[in-house]
Design brief:
Length: 353
Amino acid sequence: MPISNKIQQLIISPYGDYLAILTNHTIHVAVLPDPAHLASDDSTPLKLKTYHIGPITHVVERSALACALWHPLGINGACLVTVTKDAVVRLWELNRDNKGSFDSPALAVDLKKLANGVSASEDFSPSKYGVTPGFSPDSFEMEVASACFGGCGDGTETAWAPMTLWIAMHEGDVYALCPLLPSTWTTRPTLMHRLAAAVSCDTATLETANDNGNAQSLKVNPQASWFLDLNTQVQASVNSDSARHEEIIVRRPQRPGPIPKLQGPFNIMPDNDSVVEITDILAISGSRQELHNFNNYADEYVDSSNTNMTFICLATTEGTVQVCLDVHGVEGRWLNSKKVRVLQNRDVLLVNR
């Protein structure tokens, strides 16, 4: 492969079609050969076709990469999310028939700008190359250590888990982006049922609002508007294809917008005088029964009616792992369309083991 720098990480896509190859600053995606080669007697090396992701974005002259992740809901597993250490999240919808999909991201968000955002109408795109940004304390407090998705999209996770990106900062703060989705993505009726239960406005109210043309009620609840759009697409697909157990391709709702609100920071590191930096993050989402054996402390803090939970595990420079319980559960949130700041306090409980 035409990669000169030291390889830091290899990540296979969900369907085994692609291999993401990371160095400190660059990322390439290789098309994996047919598995039939494994049964061949020919042991000569195979030259893989590779694509440089962001040839003017992920280069040595720009910020180093913190991590790269395959989106669990990407079509054919071909949606890649890159996170740089300067807190910029980029979403790449890869298509081998469209070379431009490897050159430019479909969505790019500067988390430092989003953290101070007031209105959804603001520009949260990263600063252009060569433009020197002004001083901001966020440049230090929001240096990314790692990121992960809350789930892989199976039937045992919380509804929002596979579309929630958790971002851990070196200084100890943790943020969440939900929902972070490509322009088109895959879902299943089971996921839609769980989303319907999770959305604050129940399905019956949504259908009534839709039938009566009550647009005002949907404006009040962005989740309701967002879910109604999805549910309409899924119902149309099921009625036409009778594909109740198949993956259904849906488009991302245009409203409230493609960029979710940045939730956090969740201050979950213990308060002490020692300097502890986060090095990695892992989210474990599932039903209460499945996670019971993972941590019995959950019973002390979560009501029995809360059937789904998420644990956030953080590795630190001291060689410890902090296990944290997300008490309330992260849900889809967006900034207001008007310039009105809304403050929301959330709790993430630290559970020492």
